[in-house]
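How a chain folds remains the central question behind the approach discussed here. For one protein, we set the task of working out the structure tokens from the amino acid sequence alone. The sequence in question and its structure tokens are set out directly beneath this paragraph.

_____
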Amino acid sequence: MSKIKKSTVGRNDPCPCGSGKKYKKCCLNASRGPLADGVASSSDNSPGGNFPDSIPDLSESDRARHGGVLNPGLSGRVNDDLKTALASQQFQSVEQAREFVQQHMENRNRAGVVEFHGLSPEQIHSLINNPFDSPALLEFPDNYQVDSKVPYVFFFNQLVTAIGNKDFKPTATGNLPRNFCRLVAFRWLGEMEYAKRTRYGGINSETDFFELNGFRHVCEFAGYLRKYRGKYIIGKECQQLLKAGGQSAVYRGLFKAFITELDWGYGDGYPDQLSLIQRFWAFSLYLLQQFGDEWRPTRFYEDAFLLAFPALADPALETQFQSAEEVARAAFRRRVLVQWMPWFGLAQFENPDPDDLLSDSYRVRKTPLADQVAVFTV
């Protein structure tokens, strides 16, 4: 298990947020977290963008810049609208033309579009780069309670109990003790599911229990779990959170660390360029909140996600057995709908074939917690 990898969008590629700017002049420098390659820019961070020193005539690369490299259809529409707007204007100077284009693009960036399911390119820009620091768009309340049955909360409570009861030592490779992993797996999965999971081999180490392996790394990234004098201990910050707000306060820290630190694609075999799925986590949550009141097939959310970012299904993803779109869908399904959302109690899912984790027959429905962890103010 590893920390998140940096985005693979090229510096001169169109920005995936749809701002109308090159990546190097937009999202590349928009945040200081592990999702960005650069540092914040105080002079060039608005979605409006800079424009050439001549009356513009948008080329193929210009068309791709607006709407993002991941939505060429949107960029083409914006290009046509701009041409229409320019045709009805008369300019006295190049500067006047530049100002008109900039204002036109800024207005377009603030307007909701069908591809983003009502959100604007400007809002997508914020969700991609500053989701935890955009209160005008997304707020994170701290007044909700989390059920102890939520998987990551369940794992945490099991961990705290084990550490408190005895000397809790990591293995030689730094993993959680084998007996602990077996016990937690049995308690979480139940007797029948545990038997299915171990029918071809037992849980002999933490890495045989993938969910717990990821959880342990998230705890360490959050500073909740530390090694001290050869033993595992609960970090002081975590102890303070437990006293002040209980398991719900700890949940919020795990939630953020899972999103910003853990590499969701570790070990799943999908190409690195699909790391953008993780970067668009807030948009996925937006979709769940908007449409999750009733059971829907996972394909519904896959369709909605790829409507917004169709170029994620890059032809280069095609394999001998799957089309590029099928690969993108499977990666989104696994990372978002099967792992992140259920592990944090945001969604329930049903699968007619529990033995096939990549099945496209899942149905998904949001839980009340999905509307509580984050509030979209749009």
User: Anything to note?
Assistant: Residues 236-260 form the longest helix (25 residues). Residues 272-376 form one domain.
